[in-house]
Design brief:
The chain is an alpha+beta fold and 368 residues long. It is built from 7 helices and 14 strands. It folds into 2 domains: 196 residues, Aminopeptidase (3-Layer(aba) Sandwich); 134 residues, Aminopeptidase. A hairpin with a 5-residue loop joins strand 9 and strand 10. Helix 1 packs across helix 2 and helix 5 packs across helix 6.
């Protein structure tokens, strides 16, 4: 696909560049978490890919686990609490060693940490995580016994940006688990000629304090992660559509659905054509993945400079959300990420009823 791992709604003024904003939203784009949990590309996410427990569906139509024999009773099998300073085994797990049971347990750990963080965002489910880990071109480390992990971390290859993601259970934070995981990550990176490692964390979180304490340098452009509950805002969008339609008489909107090449799911797209010239002057996109089917993510919005100020961006956004709802019946929320400092994008998203879940900031550790 043409998508980068960054996501946003971008409708900038004419003097702004056409490049799209760097804001991750997926589990894969999250930090080694000493105190927060992220969102991913199917996320994400990365707090990410990507998402949440309420936004998380179980692996099956009626909620059965990934495999009946591998079912995990999360209520009974919470991560074991260790003593501060206790030596915890860290296991490097290769893709062919990742089992359905392990994916179940790691996904459950991510879900519980998302709930503990108080954010209701998209994360991949166990089935999608199993596929992701079994096809991981980077590396995976698990803290604690594989049948009851208390933390885990992944690192993508240098070609994929050297992105670090990880989670440590709430009850085992500040006990050296994240430090041990990071030690393994850095040793691996040193052996494999990584120039740097990237970690995206929630601002003002324990995770941010952790990565900065270990030499990660913060970027300068935080991204605002926003969420909209589709059912709670349906009436509002209806009023907005009526208002925006009066401005959009000069445009024709067309919708299309495209199957994703990797990970399963669909890309939904709205294209705007100017009726006078017949030229395409804007588009809007959202993605729904099999890994997080209750969320539409990876939003993009583009309006040509000469057609801005016409509420075309708002009109396309409303049309796109309605199209997604008509095709992806499980979707109940939209999650997007955009530059926190961009007043134009903020205006559109605020008008549509999006609420800010938090700010994320990319941090980079330079290794050479």
């Amino acid at each position: 696909m043409r998508r980068s791992r960054r996501e946003l709604f971008d409708e900038r003024p004419e003097e702004a560049p056409d490049t799209l904003d760097p804001a991750p939203a997926d589990a894969e784009d999250a930090a080694l978490d000493a105190g927060d949990s992220p969102a991913d590309e199917p996320g994400e996410p990365a707090d990410a890919v990507a998402s949440d427990e309420p936004g998380e569906t179980e692996d099956g139509e009626d909620g059965e686990s990934l495999e009946e024999s591998d079912e995990v009773d999360e209520a009974e099998e919470e991560p074991e609490e260790i003593e501060a300073g206790e030596q915890i085994p860290i296991t490097a797990v290769t893709p062919d060693e990742v089992t359905a049971d392990l994916a179940n347990r790691l996904a459950a750990l991510d879900r519980s940490e998302m709930v503990a963080s108080g954010r209701n965002l998209a994360i991949v489910n166990a089935r999608a995580l199993l596929t992701k880990l079994q096809t991981l071109s980077g590396s995976l480390w698990v803290a604690g016994p594989l049948n009851r992990p208390i933390g885990w971390a992944t690192l993508t290859t240098p070609a994929e940006g050297g992105v670090l993601h990880g989670t440590v259970s709430t009850r085992n934070r500040r006990k050296g688990v994240a430090d041990r995981l990071l030690e393994e990550v850095l040793a691996y990176a040193a052996e494999h000629t990584y120039a740097s490692i990237i970690s995206t964390v929630w601002t003002d979180s324990p995770a941010e304090a952790f990565v900065q304490a270990h030499g990660f340098e913060p970027g300068t452009q935080p991204a605002a992660v926003r969420r909209q509950d589709l059912y709670a805002t349906a009436e509002r969008r209806g009023r907005i559509e009526e208002d925006a339609a009066s401005y959009g008489a000069s445009y024709e909107l067309a919708t299309a659905e495209e199957e994703l090449e990797q990970g399963g799911g669909s890309l939904y797209r709205v294209v705007a054509r100017h009726l006078v010239t017949g030229v395409e002057v804007g588009f809007a996109e959202l993605t729904v993945t099999e890994g997080a089917p209750e969320f539409a993510i990876n939003g993009m919005l583009r309006v040509e400079p000469g057609h801005r100020g016409t509420r075309l961006g708002t009109l396309m956004s409303v049309e796109l959300i309605g199209f997604v709802q008509s095709k992806a019946k499980k979707v109940r929320a939209v999650q997007v990420s955009s530059p926190a400092s961009d007043p134009y994008i903020t205006t559109i998203l605020d008008r549509l009823g999006f609420r800010v879940a938090g700010l994320q900031l990319e941090h980079r550790l330079r290794l050479r």
